[in-house]
Every structure is written in structure tokens, then in C-alpha cells.
Model the fold of this input.
Amino acid sequence: MTLYALIAYLHERPRPVEAGIKYLALAAVSAAFLLFGIALIYADLGSMDFARIAPLLATKADLNATLLLPGVVLIVTGIGFKLALVPFHMWTPDVYEGAPAPVTAFVATVSKGAMFALLLRYFNQSGFNHGFAPVVLMFSIIAIASMFAGNLLALLQNNVKRILAYSSIAHMGYLLVAFQIGGPMGASAVIFYLVAYFVMTLGAFGVVTVLSERERDADLLEDYRGLFWRRPALALVFTAMLLSLAGIPLTAGFLGKFYIIAAGTSVGAWALILILVITSAIGLFYYLRIVATLYAQPAAGDRAHEPIPRRAPVANLVLAALTVILVWLGVYPAPLLVAIRAAISSIV
Done:
């Protein structure tokens, strides 16, 4: 409920109000799907306790597939809306574009991180993920569709916030590949990639926030033309975030994808890994397109010659800290991996 208000709170602008209404309608529908799916599973198994569902699935002889499978499908549908997975992604570009940049960063990170934590706990502890072949197939199709659709649709955009929106759909697909792998290695890859995704997304939208004006967000590609010649530090931070999102070495994004690929090869998930590599290569184009715009020499009369107002020093400190964390995770991830292994012991 608070997200609806956050998205629309700049009511003097038309786009936030529109984005808030769209998110309200679709999120309400997704919540209804989720609750109805929970009700169907409870009707068959008589329990909503994650730990009790697994032995019930293994021992109960009179499982009702007409309740159980639709219930799982409805739960996946509700979670898919929250995570903006294909084909439940329709709200993402409009809401990302319309919401104020700080709120977009919150929706893209905290909201999705919480839902992925639920996905990990529910499907690993209840036994629905690897014990049910239809569920495995469903997640595989959603992951493949998200990776392709997110990257291909981002190629068509000229709005930075919409590019990052479609990029987030692709990244949720990458995370779903790691989730499909299962086991301690798959769960470790999911959590590491989530941490990296948080840092990259907060840094990217942090730059958008710093460049935005009171009347509008800096969401057009032209707003970033020649940024390096006006604010070189901001351009370097944005470059680091974009290269990490693309999976370039020495960044957290590269190691995140490396761990997903390593986990996939350990269980022989070659098809998913191959598609991840291909779609990541497609994604390089639109990330490098933004990077090229940052360093383009502005022509006379361009908006790129307009001065950029200075923000509070705390904004620069936050962006600097995120950049340091990004590089640190890319070159020395050991402390985080140790913490992740301790955290997942209660999940898998």
C-alpha cells in the first residue's frame, strides 16, 4: 500500500499519478492471484506451514491435482507480477518511468528482493520446486522469456528509466536461472546476484536522481549527452554501474553471472546457461549505447552545455560508497560469500 503512495506522491506531475494508478490496479490483481493460490493449496494439504508442506507432498496419497497445480500456478503468477517476470511485466516500464527516481530505485530493489526471499524460502522448503516437474518447466519458460524479452525490448528504448526497467526484467530472468539450479550453490548464486543487483540499481538510479530537476526526471538519453565533460565523477560512477549491469569483469555484476554459470554447469543446465550468455551479449548493446552518450562530445547549442546544479554532499558520498562496494565485490567477494553460506543454511 505504501508503494502506491510513494509512486504517486508528486501529484503535480501527470506521470507519477498515472504510474501509481497502474501499479495499484496490477498489484491488487497480483495479490488476489497469490491469495487464491494459497487458498487452493491449503484446501488440499490443510497447512500453510512451509516445513509441513514438503512431508505432506511426499506422503499424502490422495493429492488433488485439480487444486494443487492451479494453486502453484496462481502463486507463481502473483510472485511473477511483483518480480516483473514475463509475461507479468506489463507494469514495469510505465511505473519505472512515471515514478520519481528515488522511488523507482526502491521498487526495483527492496520490493523485488523481499519477493525473491519469499520465492526462495517457499519453493525450497515446501518441496514444490524440484519435486514437481510442471513447476520446473514453468520456471524455465518464464526465465527464458524474461531474459529474451527484457534485453530485446530494451534495445528499442530511448528513455534511460525504461531501459533500466527492461534491464531489470532480464536480470530477474538471470536470477530465476540460479533459483532453478537449487541446492546450496544455486541459493548462494541467487543471494550474491541479488546483492550485486541492489548495488548496481541503486547506483544507476542514484545518478538519475542527482541529475533530475524539480519539474522532471533526467530520463532521456539526451540528458546524459556529454555528461563526462560537465560532471566527470558522475559519468564515471554511471559507467561503472552500467558496465556491471552488462557483466564486465572486475565488477560485482560479472562475478554474479559467473556464479550463476558455475552453479548451472555443476548440474548440467546447459540450455539455460547458453541462453543467459546469449541474452547478456545482446544486453551489451544498450548499456554501451548509454556509455557512448556519456562520453560524446556535445555539439554547439546542445542541452549538454547547460550547467548541472550541485546536490547535497551526502548524495555524492552515497554514490562513491556504492561504486567502492561494486568494485570490492568484483575483486574480493570472499567475506560476502561466507555470510551468504551461513544465511542459506536455514533455507536449503
